[in-house]
From TrEMBL:
Zinc in keyword set: yes
Gene Ontology CC annotations of this record: extracellular space
Occurrences of domain Peptidase M14 (ranges): 386-705
Swiss-Prot/TrEMBL keywords: Hydrolase, Metalloprotease, Protease, Zinc
Descriptive protein name: Peptidase M14 domain-containing protein
InterPro entries referenced in this protein's UniProt entry, alphabetically: GH29D-like_dom, Peptidase_M14
Residue runs in coiled coils: none
Pfam family, one: Peptidase_M14
GO BP annotations listed: proteolysis
Classification lineage: Bacteria, Bacillati, Actinomycetota, Actinomycetes, Streptosporangiales
Gene3D superfamilies the UniProt entry points to: Zn peptidases
Cofactor names: Zn(2+)
Keyword Protease found: yes
Entries under SMART domains matching the protein: Zn_pept
Amino acid sequence: MRSSLTGVGRARAVAAFVLPVVLALGASPVLAGSAAPALSGEEVVPDRQPSTAQDGVALLRVVVPDQAAVDRLNALGVDLAEYRRAVDDGIEVHAVLSPGEARELRGKGFDVRDAVPNQAGFAANQAERRIAMSAAATAAQRNDTLTPLRAEWFTSTDDRRFLSVEVKSSATDAETVLTATWDSGPGTPPGSGGTATLSRFTDAGQYMYHRFDYPLPVTQAPARVTVRSSRGGSVTVPVTKWLGERRTPPGRHYVSDFVDHYMDPTEVTRRITGLAAEFPRITQVVDLPYRTNGYRRAAQAQFGTVPASTFYVTSAAYGSQGGNDVSLALIRPETASAALKVSVTGKDVVVSLATDASGAITSTARQVVEALNADPAASALLRASTYRGDQGDGLVAAAPATRLTDGLKAPQSVSREPFQMKALRIGAKRDGSRVGVFLYCQEHAREWVTPLVCVETAERLLRNYAHDPRTRKIIDDLDIFVLPTANPDGAHYSFYDYNMQRKNMTNHCPARSADPASRNSWGVDLNRNFSVGSLFDGYSGASSDCTSAVFAGPAELSEPEDRNQVWLTRKYPNIRFAMNTHSYGGYFMWPPGSYKEAGRETLPRVDLGTENYFWEASRHILSAVQERRGTAIWPGRTGPVPDVLYSAAGNSADEHWYNRGIIGWDFEVGADLYDAATGRFQPVGFQPPFTEGHEEAMEFSGGQIAILEVARAYANDRRRPDSELKVTGRDDSSATFTFTTDEPANVYYTLDGSRPTLNSRKLVSSGVREGAQRITVNRTTEVHWFSVDIAGNVERGYRPGGTDRNYRRERVEVRGNR
């Protein structure tokens, strides 16, 4: 999903404006010819009007995937600064753009981001300079406060050790520099392990915290790390081990490794129906009610040489339903002063072009389009359009009969009809009495490894049930739903037509964007089409542009693929856990998944107890991933989606959590691989060589099994939590305290001597990736409280809605005010 989670910024090829005379989809859909003029023709951007107010012109960051995309920006005449640097998702360049130009580039799929700091305008710079100078003078008189968030070491492939540190400074300006030093283990001198500068992490223009861009390789596991700020702040914290907990091993005869090649959705669906037939006692197939658009397209052909003389035709029927049999010819009549005429024989359409007194063709593209659309017989077969909204005033040329084609290349074994999506239900008792778990894969078409993860998990469960006690307990105690391909149409297109296809195949584009050269840009991003935190609610990370990689669709839940997910979770309300498996990058995330860019307003964050539950479960799940070949998902790539990646408006995990309370995670399989020779981490991509894809499927299937173990522990949890009140500070006028629990749980408390209930104050987090809040009282206070774990067990069996008095209580003393 490095979209999966960087689709926002993938620049698409910009069509050149010199076209071949005839372009049918049997050839490449990208228009050929000379380089495009600078944002010209129908793509003109309003001229800048120079003024001292800048008119919104700014130096903006643009992130592109490769040098070819930089070259396309140059070809478009974009005013690029002489700056570039490699970033995680490609190359960052800086461009001087007006608001209109920025919108235009975004419409072409370029990832135009925020302004380069201190480039917002002369007046703003001067004002900011005065404020900054004043603030700097004040800051020089005091130190900043450093809040440690995480400090961990871990091993990854080949047992190499790495260090990850996250620290938040109270000084949020870009001038604050944090430096970390660490030892070489217990008893070694401070700083003996090494030193490095942390990077300032911002998102949506807001400072989040400082961190290492990548985990740092270390020779020995550090015991303590010290972080110092250029403002004078300092903090020293212990370094804990991340992952590697001891898990119950499978039985001696446990079998795995059931996938040996990448599979298209037809193969995958056939595989799970075969499993259901082989294991009828503990499985069934669930046919999802909404059929997809299908792996099908209307047939098209395009005629012309430049935009003004270019038009294209689209069949009324899908190509597989007769559209591929339609042909169109443009003929020059033998006589002078001939009128424009359209004739139809069967499915062959002929346009006899108009001529003048000398016999020269006089028909324009617009006139041909209007004639075809006005003719009843022709319009029953096809619809004509000028090129991308052009007026079509250029003269057309004669062209031989050209058969329309849908351009689809999959073998006939791949049906062109609407796809019947199927989920495999696994469980010894499938009556809704067991806790349900929903595992779904391949929401994004190009993520070929992900359906293998789901298939491998299903195979492991069913083939180990008879002889592995751990597997038997999972299937006996849970109700498991496996949807191996959530985007079958798009995945077929990715396999056979355009491997970078992200979206489904439903084309919602108007004629301006529906020409043949746009065919790889059609479709809806299914992980932006759900109804919570969506583009339509004002959240960021999706687009209303039908050719954008993150097009949210014409409305929430417009797509049958997504309505199927919602139907499943409503039909089976016992589903309490879910896992959405994407690729790539090696992330492990949970809700919230989106925010509004203005003020970075996220969806409501999960409460502290649930957040701690996510973190605790992640250790078990990610340790299972690590067991295969040592791959560690980094601490910095673990957490709520906006904290570690970006905003993904309208994603499925938010849909299931906020609407139905389903505890949901997101995997991004395909963690970066460390190259010892270069000392750098290397990305693996959406479709790595199968040897790598196979390993990813094996390790993340282990993670899915671990999620089932977490769900089973939840289902069988009858243990009550225990909590304590901890005083963290005290002076003559106040006391500060917090609560700790022996397992992830929420704490409800009162400070006025009243009986605590579920409507009382709830302990919350101090901030993003920080621990529990600290509560300060100014006089001696009787604190009453109780805790409730995620499974609903209440401390001491206390009944918040009753009249019990067996809640926890403690007196917090304030010396000067008793």
